[in-house]
Amino acid sequence: MLPTLAVSIPLTVLIIFTLNILLAEFGAADISGAGAALGAVTQLGPLTTVLVIAGAGATAICADLGARTIREEIDAMEVLGIDPIHRLVVPRVVAATIVAALLNGAVITIGLVGGFVFSVFIQHVSAGAYVGTLTLVTGLPEVIISVVKSATFGLIAGLVGCYRGLTTKGGPKGVGTAVNETLVLCVIALFATNVVLTTIGVRFGTGH
Description:
This protein has 208 residues and is mostly helical. The chain has helices at 2-25, 32-70, 73-79, 84-122, 127-132, 140-166, 171-203.
């Protein structure tokens, strides 16, 4: 939760502050809730999920499986007739997918609450207006595509972490190299996936 707070709150404050300044110039500061909801649901939540899942989740999975690989634990499991994919990979990938979706929801909630506090108490926007405009441009379709994005990010991060962990070579140094490669691969893959899913969402009427 702490990494989520550390990433989402500054981003939210920056977005809301910039948005409110722009809206104030047009005399429309009272609809800042609409902008906060759209930004948090369609981009802030999924992108924060990318950073946390790639930086913490996938690398931890890779380090764990990489250490098991160089200690030949994976080979020992196969000798005992235990499928390492079923026993080690599947639970981690499923967990990463579920956690990513839950993390996305937490980031959106934190973002909206942080936006409310900043808008109402710092920039003196009406609390009723902020809450009343949250669903002005953000509805169920945007929420669905946000959940799909985050779950997909978790799935990809879990798969990348497991793959690099199980293919680690070169002893302890190889584990460190695999972890670094996992981080780079995850960030590239997840941001590319975000672009694709956002484009699809816009095509079907989401992510205005």
